[in-house]
Input
Amino acid sequence: MNVSLREITNDNFEACVKLKVTEDQKYFVATNVMSIAESKVSPHLIPLAVYNDDELVGFTLHGQDSQSKNYYIVRLMIDEKFQCKGFGKKCLHTCSGLETGKICQPGAHQNSHENNETSGKDKNYFLNQGDL
Output
């Protein structure tokens, strides 16, 4: 498994927009097109495509805190065809090394929408990833 993060370009834009989560997950994460649009009006947001070798498997949106300059994960989605294969975990560890060295700095928190039925499961998933 060789997971990497790449810039959204004309070459991969349409494929990124076509990525989708399972039907029961679609209310828990914004669409990739919405995330990309948000990044255009909020310059601190950075959209990135998640690849395994040369195959697009997901999408992530990062933010950068203006004061600390630390990076944090705003959104992470793995396409439904690639879920439960370790790409999410590998992506989190790949994300943790971006730019300043760590996105998940001490004191960072994972935030799930209050109506998200999977909040507990999501929180445990992130907590079980160790020292990112």
The radius of gyration is 14 Å. The first helix runs from residue 13 to 18.
